[in-house]
Amino acid sequence: MISKRLSELRKKRQWSLQYIADQLNIAKSTYAGYESGYRQPSLEAVKELATLFGTTTDYLLGVTNDEQPTIELTNAAFHMTVDGEPLTEDEIIQLIAFIRTKRELEKHKK
Amino acid sequence: MISKRLSELRKKRQWSLQYIADQLNIAKSTYAGYESGYRQPSLEAVKELATLFGTTTDYLLGVTNDEQPTIELTNAAFHMTVDGEPLTEDEIIQLIAFIRTKRELEKHKK
DNA sequence: AAAATTGTTCGCGATTCGCGTACCTTTAAT
DNA sequence: ATTAAAGGTACGCGAATCGCGAACAATTTT
């Protein structure tokens, strides 16, 4: 799974194997091994690759299929901030209501 | 890092080494090695551990420090949904404005 | 078409894995 | 209090896997 993800991400960015190897300070053949599935990257390498590609380790490992995670706001199983300030329970509720109301209005406009 | 995280999460849940070992189908000593730092789990094991603990691999690996990720809404580097429907760019902008305005009003109320 | 860059594969030595085992500590049962 | 059971820690062993360098093919650049 990770080999597929790495290969996709690298090609999308048009980066060479050598470039990535240089960024992580590993041999080209080592990184090539990750993509071919011949080798598995260390946990440390996985972290660095996620950072380099601007994605999450969950995506690289295939825990999730979203390169940028998708968040369902009605499941408050996570924390949100605006301008660094955490949202309160109430604010989240109002926010969801705001979106729902707006959508309801749009629907009738048609 | 991962050893520290695993240890914390397990203790918080009051699970035994054996219990986790059974869940992942590995030897108790193998999992114990993860917590002591004597061994590193395979990528597959990391995935399963994240699922078992209901957290993310990013947290286990120390990419993030939030067991439940914190999302800054003004960085739209991710996707959001309400009732399964993705939010549009505009909706996000309005939503942030909504929160900011509300906070501004609160401030003056005091 | 020659040179340079990129990508693929593989053998080697070194490292690290997972397991079983042994042992100590803590908890539960009698 | 004594014993049994369960939880936790440490380590040796054989097997598996790592990272690297090297050799070579494929592609791109000059």
Describe this structure in words.
The structure is a homodimer of 110-residue chains. The first copy, chain A, has six helices and three strands, in the order αααααβββα. Chain A folds into two domains: 2-61, lambda repressor-like DNA-binding domains (434 Repressor (Amino-terminal Domain), Orthogonal Bundle), CATH 1.10.260; 71-110, no CATH class. With 110 residues, the first copy, chain A, is mainly α. Chain A is elongated, with a radius of gyration of 20 Å. The longest helix of chain A has 21 residues, at 89-109. In chain A, β2 and β3 form a beta hairpin. The mean pLDDT of chain A is 85. The first copy, chain A, starts with a helix and ends with a helix. In chain A, α2 packs across α3 (28-36). In chain A, strands 2-3 form a two-stranded antiparallel ribbon. Chain A binds chain B through residues 2, 40-43, 46-47, 50-51, 56-58, 61-63, 66, 68-74, 77-87, 91, 94-96, 98-100, 102-103, and chain B through 2, 40-43, 46-47, 50-51, 56-58, 61-63, 66, 68-74, 77-87, 91, 94-96, 98-100, 102-103. β2 (79-82) of chain A pairs parallel with β1 of chain B. The structure holds a DNA duplex (30 and 30 nucleotides). Chains A, B: Keywords: DNA-binding. Chains A, B: GO terms for molecular function: DNA binding. Chains A, B: This is XRE family transcriptional regulator. Chains A, B: It comes from Anoxybacillus flavithermus.
